[in-house]
Amino acid sequence: MGFLLPILLALLASVLGGLYFLGAFRQRRPGEPPLDRGPIPWLGHVLEFRRDTAMFLERMKRKHGDIFTIQLGGLYFTFLMDPLSFGTVVKEARAKLDFTKFAQQLVQKVFGYHSMENDHKFLQMSSNKHLMGDGLVVMTQAMMSNLQNLMLHSVGTKHDRNKTWNEDGLFNYSYNIVFRAGYLALFGNETPKSPGSLEKAKEVDREESQELFREFRKYDQLFPNLAYGVLPPGEKREAERLKRLFWNMLSVQKMKTKDNISGWVREQQQLREEHGMEDFMQNRYMFLLLWASQGNTGPAAFWLLLYLMKQPEAMKAVQGEVEEVLKETDQEVKHGGPLIDLTRDMLLKTPILDSAVEETLRLIAAPVLTRAVLQDMSLRMSDGNEYRIREGDRVALFPYTAVHIDPEVHPDPLTFKYDRFLTPEGGKKTDFYKGGKKLKYYNMPWGAGITMCPGRFFATNELKQFVFLMLTYFDFELKNPEEKIPDIDIKRWGFGSMQPTKDIQFRYRLRF
Fold it and tell me: Where is the chain membrane-spanning (predicted)?
């Protein structure tokens, strides 16, 4: 017995230490938000959170109020659910709340990329230069050229063939076209020198981008479970195969053979090369740039087009605006005529389409905005209450349930209203209220503050250009107009634009 006692005490100490490590003994301290550790040591609520983030957070809000701390996979997350209090997180100094640590861990897990110092700062500076302002003029032209190559390459064939109906899934078609055009606009085109002519080079672009999209969709479907680290062995091997494939297809060596590479991509590559980053790690960063720039716009294009097709009044309003913009620039679409030149300036004259885009994103963009707590601090709520937050925890916002579908902020929130973000005079509406107080953060598909998506203007233009061309060049309709709008796939909560649980069939043909 004397021999067994030390062993039993050591075992007990080990168990207690393990439970402490798993967070089993964490208690709410005075001044902290309500604490809910969940049913499973260390894992906490992660299974329910992963199953349906929106439903879970609404349950926690009903139970605990507008602020609460929960355990998810060994980490403690304090969720702030009051949009009037979002500014206390968005505007907090990075010395206290920082997003880079969390982001670095995610991109390392998902893309195999190890961030360098000031990575986000360099990306932000380059994006401001190339994806906004004058840089956006160049990118708009590049996007238009590639959209026309993918959508209109059959123009000029026999007139009766142009009138043939084509059938496809609307999600597949929209995602396919927008992804491929965006990829070519950013990462460059095949040089005519190799295939021998510009037309053959365009054909190579179509074929290469089609292969890239096909493989990207495989990775895209694995992405949520990959990010959460719950892929089964077979899918994990497939994810690794796809990573290597993209590292090769997007390698800096292959990029050197391309024409028309965007300044955004080229500058990112040159910057890392100057800082001594090896080629293999630069290749991984190129894959990260592709996903970050093109992983959400295609799905958003699907929802936008579907909502317009489901609402004749909305479609008529946007169609009329598109025709008016073309008329103002003396451009006419006719058989055998020149392709339209859709410029950035033309896209600035579409307030109705702008509102439809913003309304679409309100309904389908659902990111979780996360910050790492770098030191003990307090968060002040809009009602004047303050809560203590611990160093090492996370603070998170989920705008989708907190504001996007809050009926007090957006009446009838689950209904698409194309003019929700228009004033009676036809300008941009920004006055939305909660509890009688005007909200600054009334729609947050791009995030907010210094973490706001730096490519949001380019992404918005991608959506608008795609819809503009569809309305200008094509007749299109749902195969079954009575088919209901598909549900969103709840497995993708937290990762940007949501995707449908199933595709919906449509048909399209050239109008001339």
Answer: 285-308
